[in-house]
Amino acid sequence: MASINTNSHTVTFLRTPTGITWVALIAVTLVSWWIGTDHGLDDPTAAAALVLGMGIVKIYLIGMEFMELRHADPRLRTAFTGYCALLAVGLIGMLVIL
């Protein structure tokens, strides 16, 4: 009987852009959870701004990889990148100012 190595499929998946993005999303989620549960920073405004920023990075990664915007028309990619930047500036700006 032949031995089936299921780990090779996992390793192959983790070397693809989708796999790398998936691991990055998990890492960002864990770090933002750690910071958001009073483990990271003493300043709550800075912690909230950092968590918001990480959330926007996750939006960008999901849009580029899983919605396949990295293969889309450059104008659409630019519009999405601009949206993420404006969202970051707007949300973090409101958090700091208000």
UniProtKB/TrEMBL annotation:
Cell compartments where the protein resides: Cell membrane
UniProt lineage: Bacteria, Bacillati, Actinomycetota, Actinomycetes, Sporichthyales
InterPro entries: Cyt_c_oxidase_su4_prok (IPR005171)
Main location: membrane
Keyword Cell division carried by entry: no
Presence of keyword Transmembrane: yes
Transmembrane segments: 12-35, 47-67, 79-97
Name under which the protein is recorded: Cytochrome c oxidase subunit IV
Keyword annotations from UniProtKB, A to Z: Cell membrane, Membrane, Transmembrane, Transmembrane helix
Domain of life (superkingdom): Bacteria
The species this protein was found in: Sporichthya brevicatena
UniProt topology in membrane: Multi-pass membrane protein
